[in-house]
């Protein structure tokens, strides 16, 4: 019997699960998330192994969903000094890179910015030839001054030739420095794609240290046979090498792990998911078994980007949310006791009224000691819970794309605070093991690859364009660590682009497969 470990880092708790090859849960643990993230991961790993008593050589896979990249951007720490090379002179001179970025984030990344001739028009025609001599000069200038490079060419999703040639030249001079190419990360929209590419380049070292420290922890625990994967934000996995090329794809992997875990536990292919943690709640959508993606630009750390992100609404409401009354009005959060809930909530002998205390007072949950919340006035508890429920109802309504009622899957340790009735929902599913859906989502995940390209149908047939995109997505899944024989196309979308000449179409394809 082979086993796999899934670990997911939340804002309040770090969860770890052990599953067998039949995807049956063998053991699970929760430990408080630590400020440095890593020590909480090591503790969760150690505890789940000790509790299970499994032969460690039989654990073949270890999956990690982590907030390291998100925290690095939020805290402006451990980011690589990055050279930004934009190919598009003179067409793109009007707006410089990093416009609108928070000043402290610009300082953390470094303002090494270069604009050179090259790039393409929206129909693929060259604006001007790539200035290779200038590129070599820049490479010599930045050698030893930066740790990573971001290359962005205007309309590279239409033609990526200048970005690929730029990478070749830079590697000739700089050797094996990490180079992020914008056509591999974002879609149309130069500034948002540039922002995503720069953030990706800045996160390379964070991904490397995260992966290496996780591998070291596994070795320390005797897991010498385990292949390591990191979770990405579409609910699937990627190999360590792939994660070091695209670390930005780990951002928001926690909520998508929960959505995949909810789909797995509930056996539902299409549903709403409400993941309630200790500090926040995330509402997402299962669509064909995978998290629905956002169709709008997303801000990360104050920076507007257009790379793939899950479609989520986050609420400042969780099991540890502080409830109080001010001037006769009930206030729900946004403050939370977070991972200190077992010390500070009334039901655990603390002195702070939390959302969990309200749920226990109203008989909705059995946690801690009911005796310790009996002094909360019943009227106060009812008003507080009505306000919490109103927040949930409103967010659910925003996530729905149809007025038809849908099933709602409740997961996360804090989901005990949710009532048995939610507006716009025809069924509430509280699956077994709901409290560790996030780590389960990591443990049972497949490996995926995705392609998002623009094709001109004046050069080829629609069928040929679709086949090319499908094959590219399959190749990406294999590069990310999927078993080539198991990869299938799971999602295809083609959108005619009326504003581009040449009968242009944007094709997005996702392929997914099992672990090698």
TrEMBL record:
It comes from the Bacteria. It comes from Thermoanaerobacter siderophilus SR4. Residues 4-173 form the Hydantoinase/oxoprolinase N-terminal domain. This is N-methylhydantoinase A/acetone carboxylase, beta subunit. It holds the Pfam family Hydant_A_N. Residues 193-363 form the Hydantoinase A/oxoprolinase domain. InterPro entries: ATPase_NBD, Hydant_A_N, Hydantoinase_A, Oxoprolinase-like. One of its GO terms (molecular function) is hydrolase activity.
